[in-house]
Amino acid sequence: MTPLFLLKVKLGKLLANVLSGFVRDREKRHRLRERLDPLNPERCVAYLERHYADVEPLPLFNKSKKENYIWVCWLQGEASAPSLVARCIASIRKFKQESQEVVVITEENYTDYLDLPKAIIEKRKRGIITNAHFSDILRIHLLACYGGCWLDATCLLTSPVPAEILSLDLFIYHTHGEFAFTQIQSCFLVAKPDNYVMRKWCAAIDAYWESESMLIHYFLLHLMFQALLHKDGNFCDAFEVIPYKTDEAAHALLYAMLRGERYSDELMEKAAKTSFWHKLTYKFDAELLNNPDSLVSKLSEREMS
């Protein structure tokens, strides 16, 4: 982005905040601010499509196909993970297939698997690339190179990943609700090594960070995916053949946690019947964490029951 473009963005955001400030209704105020924002999702996708959607995919890696990985990431190291994260990782190990190897990616070991572009490493050191976005970068590069299954460290498994999903060349959930604008869910991803979509996605993100010094949007990974869908017919075709599934059922336990519900076997059984994985969070008030009867407290116990 040129200095002039960045100036226009700052002025546009200021104008959006000022004009929306006159609207009393909270929901309408947020909608107006979003519509006026020069970096709203639609404008970001258009920008990414113009500048980065024509890149060539990364070359084939041709790594050994013997490994069958489940990738998880906790950059600070598993030993320092919050109890809920430790429980989630334990659940992944519990329900992995015999042929699968669980790899927890950390600050210390990610270079054992990947040789990321210097621009990404340097801009992360400068604080331009956040840890959250760095995790986004890691997941698509790992899957492009080695294939396997990616699960966020706050994803709890209650049964194994279905074989019919693991057998696919690519599997991505669609999003629902508040974050439907992102179109895809990146907490759970499956790909075969050297998958075209993953190699193209990586190439576009790499090209972005080679040129840019600003995270255009928190959901850059998802918006770049949309830009590629719009511009690349092969990319779009590969995505459209994936069986359509939304991530709604995978959030049932999270919604129950947010509502402060009590733990019960019935609640857990119901959730497990509708989804084999569950997106959770470890960020809760001490009141819920300290209540031994709460779902939050029970799911935050380090040991698996």
String of helices and strands: HHHEHEHHHEEHEEHHHHHEHH
Radius of gyration computed on alpha carbons:
20 Å
* Count of helix runs: 15
What's the β-strand tally? 7
What's the CATH class label of the largest domain?
Answer: Alpha Beta
The main sheet orders its strands as 2-1-3-6-5
Helix content: 40-55%
Number of domains: 3
Average predicted local confidence, pLDDT: 89
Major β-sheet annotation:
5 strands, mixed
What is the CA-CA span between the terminal residues?
A: 51 Å
Topology-level CATH name of the largest domain:
Spore Coat Polysaccharide Biosynthesis Protein SpsA, Chain A
Strand content: 5-15%
Task: Provide the CATH architecture of the largest domain.
Answer: Alpha-Beta Complex
Structural category is alpha/beta
Brief synopsis:
Helix content is 49%, strand content 11%.
How are the SSEs ordered, and which strands pair?
Layout: H1 3-20, H2 26-36, H3 41-52, E1 69-73, H4 83-95, E2 101-105, H5 110-113, H6 118-125, H7 131-146, E3 148-151, E4 155-157, H8 163-166, E5 170-174, E6 184-191, H9 196-211, H10 220-231, H11 233-240, H12 252-258, H13 265-274, E7 277-279, H14 286-289, H15 295-299
Parallel strand pairs: 1-2, 1-3
Antiparallel strand pairs: 3-6, 4-7, 5-6
Helix pairs in contact: 1-2, 3-10, 7-9, 9-10, 10-11
Can you describe this structure?
It contains 15 helices and seven strands. It is α/β, with parallel strands linked by helices. The chain folds into three domains: 3-52, no CATH class; 69-240, Spore Coat Polysaccharide Biosynthesis Protein SpsA, Chain A (Alpha-Beta Complex); 249-299, no CATH class. Strands 2-1-3-6-5 form a five-stranded mixed beta sheet, sandwiched between helices. A two-stranded antiparallel ribbon has the order 4-7. It is globular, with a radius of gyration of 20 Å.
